[in-house]
Amino acid sequence: xxxxxxxxxxxxxxxxxxxxxxxxxxxxxxxxxxxxxxxxxxxxxxxxxxxxxxxxxxxxxxxxxxxxxxxxxxxxxxxxxxxxxxxxxxxxxxxxxxxxxxxxxxxxxxxxxxxxxxxxxxxxxxxxxxxxxxxxxxxxxxxxxxxxxxxxxxxxxxxxxxxxxxxxxxxxxxxxxxxxxxxxxxxxxxxxx
Length: 193
Prior knowledge:
61% of the residues lie in helices and 20% in strands. The radius of gyration is 19 Å and the shape is globular. By secondary structure, the protein is of the alpha+beta class. It is built from 5 helices and 6 strands, in the order ααααββββββα. Strands 1, 2, 3, 4, 5 and 6 form a 6-stranded antiparallel beta sheet that branches. The protein has helices at residues 2-43, 47-61, 64-72, 81-101, 161-191; strands spanning 110-113, 117-120, 123-132, 135-145, 149-156, 159-160. The longest helix has 42 residues, at 2-43.
């Protein structure tokens, strides 16, 4: 009897330790990426250079494939491989420019990382509080273990980046299919130059 209880408790502790290790691994990866982005912001002479220089960091820590697929929603299945590639490239550019435009070279936000929350198998959410230019923001990074831990959504003040785009892309897809979504993405990318 005691052996069974001990075995069950041991397995529970092992599962909890594995979950904790995954959470801390995801948080460490996010902290590393945020520190790299802050270093780029600190050393960039202007916004254009900043956006250019954060791209490799964001390429390494965000899953643009997953983010684009989730933002497009069910219509994604009807995209051709070329349309998927173009949508992902344009959405990645849009995300990078949007993220980069929020930072001012030389002005760094203070970021407080909070305890990661497990969302499911190989999925966590890492809440942060960001102080920037006199304002305070609640920002949560949703991460998934893919080839490595990668950000798959960013929730700012309770608004999901992916859900926001999904509502837009869903309406566009219903009106004109993949070409309509691609056209909108292309126009958005052109406006952010």
